[in-house]
Amino acid sequence: MIRVAVNGYGTIGRRVADAIMQQDDMFVVGIAKTSPDYIARLASKKYRIFVPDRKNLKEFEEKGLAAEGTIDNMIDEAEIVVDATPEGIGEKNIESYRKKGIKAVFQGGEDAAIAQASFNAYANFDSALGKDYVRVVSCNTTGLARTTSVLRDAIGISRIYATLVRRATDQNDSKKGPINAVEPSLSFPSHHGPDLQTVLGKIPVDTVAVKVPTTLMHVHVINVEMKKEVDSRKILDLFAAKRRIFVTSGKDGKSSTAQLMDYAREIGRARGDLYEIAVWEESVKASGNRLNYVQAVHQESDVVPENVDAIRAMLELSDREDSIARTDRFLGIKGGMH
Ligand code: NAD
Fold first, then answer.
1. Any idea what the CATH number is for the domain that residue 55 is in?
2. Is any ligand 1 atom within 6 A of the Cβ of residue 216?
3. Which of 82, 89, 139, 303 is catalytic?
4. I need a surface site. Which of 92, 97, 178, 312 has the fewest CB within 10 A?
C-alpha cells in the first residue's frame, strides 16, 4: 500500500484524498489543513489532520480538533505527497519536499517548470514514469487533453482551435464571484494552448478563453483539423469507447451544464462529481478533414483520476492501461453513452 500525504484540502485535495482511499493499492496517511473550519471538522472523522506550524496545533485544539502534528511530520510518514494547495504555494513547498526526498504531485495552478513532467493519463502517462515531481495539468487542459489525445492517437491532428467558456469560480467560493460580467482573456493564445502542448506534444493549438458568471462547469467549443478525412459516426464511436469521456445528448434533456450536474447527482456520484468529459453527440460534426464538437468539463473533479494515475506512474507500479482501468473501476467511471 502506497502511503500518500495530501497537502491542501480544498476543492481538489479533498476529492483526491477520497479517491485515493477508494483504491486498493494506496491510502492517505494524513491531510494538511490551515484553518480549523467545518471542512477540517468533517475531515477529522476520516483522516488524521496535520497543520503547517506547531502554533496552529493550539488553534485547532481550541476549536476541539485534534491535529496530530505538522506538515513535516505528515511527510515523514509518506512515500509521496499530493500538493493541492492554492496556485503558487506548491512552488514554495517544493524545497521542503526536496529536503525530505519525497516525491510530489502538483496541480495545474503551478507553473509547468515546477515539475519534470506535466501529466494527463490519456495523453502522456509514460512521461511520469519514475519521476519525482509531476504536475497534473489544470481542469481545462485535462478536458482538452482527454478528447484531443484520443483523436491524435486514432487519426492524427494537424491543428486545434478551441474556445473555452470558463466558469468564474467554484460553487463553495463566495469571494471571487460569480462575476456579473463576461471576461475574455486578453492574450492570444490563452495560456491553455501552450499548456495543452505540455502533454500533447508539438501540435499547433490556438485557444481563446472567456470567463462567464456560472460556477457549475466549463464548456469548450473545439474545432480540429485532422490529418485525414473523418466521419462523425467514427468519432462518436472513438469517444464512446473511452471511459473518461462520455457522449451525451440534448435529446433526453441534458442540453446544458445544469442538467449534466443534475445527472451526476441523480446517478449518485459523491459530491455530484462528473469525472468524465461530456461530449454532446449533436455537436460532433465532421466535414472533410475538419471536426467540430462541444464538451463540458466539471472543473472540480476531472483531474481527480489523473492524480491517482500520476501516483502509480511516478512509483512505476502500473502501466498506463492497468492504472487507468483500476482508477476507473474504483471510482465507478464507465464511459459510453449517457
Ligand atoms: P482551494 O483554495 O479550494 O484549496 C486549497 C487548500 O489549501 C485550502 O484548503 C487552503 O486552506 C489550503 N492551503 C492554503 N495555503 C496552504 C499552505 N500554505 N499549506 C497547506 N495548505 C494550504 O484550491 P483548489 O481549487 O483545490 O486548487 C488547488 C490547486 O488545484 C491549484 O493549483 C488549482 O489551480 C488546481 N486546480 C483547481 C481546480 C478547480 O476548479 N478548483 C481544478 C483543477 C486544478
1. 3.40.50.720
2. no
3. 139
4. 92
Work out the number of other CB atoms within 10 angstroms of the CB of residue 316.
11
Smallest CA separation from ligand 1 atom 27, residue: 86
Name residues whose C-beta falls within 8 Å of residue 179's C-beta, 6 or more positions apart in sequence.
Answer: 168, 211, 213
Q: Which residue has the cell 481542469?
A: 139
Report the distance separating Cα 63 and Cα 50, nearest Å.
14
pLDDT band at 62 (very low <50, low <70, confident <90, very high): very high
Residue 247 lies in a domain: yes
Joined grid coordinates for residue 109: 495552478
pLDDT tens digits along 181-235: 999 999 999 999 999 999 999 999 999 999 999 999 999 999 999 999 999 999 9
Is any atom of ligand 1 closer than 6 Å to the C-beta of 75?
no
47 and 125 co-located in one domain: yes
Question: pLDDT-based confidence at 272, cuts 50/70/90?
Answer: very high
Question: Residue 270 maps to which CATH number?
Answer: 3.30.360.10
Q: How confident is the model at residue 21 (pLDDT cuts 50, 70, 90)?
A: very high
For residue 39, which atom of ligand 1 is closest to its CA? 9
